[in-house]
Design goal:
alpha/beta; six-stranded mixed β-sheet; Rossmann fold; 248 residues; four-stranded antiparallel β-sheet
Length: 248
Amino acid sequence: MSISAMPESLLSVRGIHTYYGDSYVLQGLSLEQPEGSIVAILGRNGMGKTTFIRSVAGLTPPRQGEIRFKGAQLSGRAPYAIAQAGIALVPQGRRIFRSLSVRENLLLPTSGLARPRRGRWNLEAVLEQFPQLAERMHHSGAALSGGEQQMLAVGRALMANPDLILMDEPSEGLAPKLVQQVGSIMQDVRAHGHAVLLVEQNFEVAMSVADYIYVVSAGRFVFEGTPAELERAPEVLDQHLGVARAHA
């Protein structure tokens, strides 16, 4: 399905320029995230993928450009306000609260809210999806394996019942079975009308779940299209992703 045939944009990013100090990282990127879709951003390390996610989440605000979510301006809003608007983040590197228990980590998105967001994801549903966590509910985050910490980071985001989940390298360092599990969760989230903006180094994972793909190189998008269209762009695959494909 082409991006133009999808529903109205949930997230609209227009011409953002983001810096780390004096380092000019994102150089005028624009992206449309339709409702109920999975959009993936691919690219080599250091090209700006994580900076894009951080820009949307308000952690590294762009100096120029516009970010709109459900029609409302996000630019300039604090990260907590962006989260309350319906965006959850699964950060790179399994950033959980290591001193808190698994249960406490999972309940964080709902704590202190007079009206938690309604949706299919609650503690029971998350533990059904990740039975490994159910066995570790009273263990601290620090006591979990790397794979369990990643499950916890994903489960914590789901507990917020967001309209959009930002996933930054969710399959990094995971065993193949867990990678498949994360992919299934993304598809399940989409099936229930929510959206995922995915940054992923695992090319095959991104190609198997994404509706639409952007490829970033040196802070600029050098390709946008469907997975099928990317498969027919060998120069992009080779030059910007290091993926070889045989062509007749």
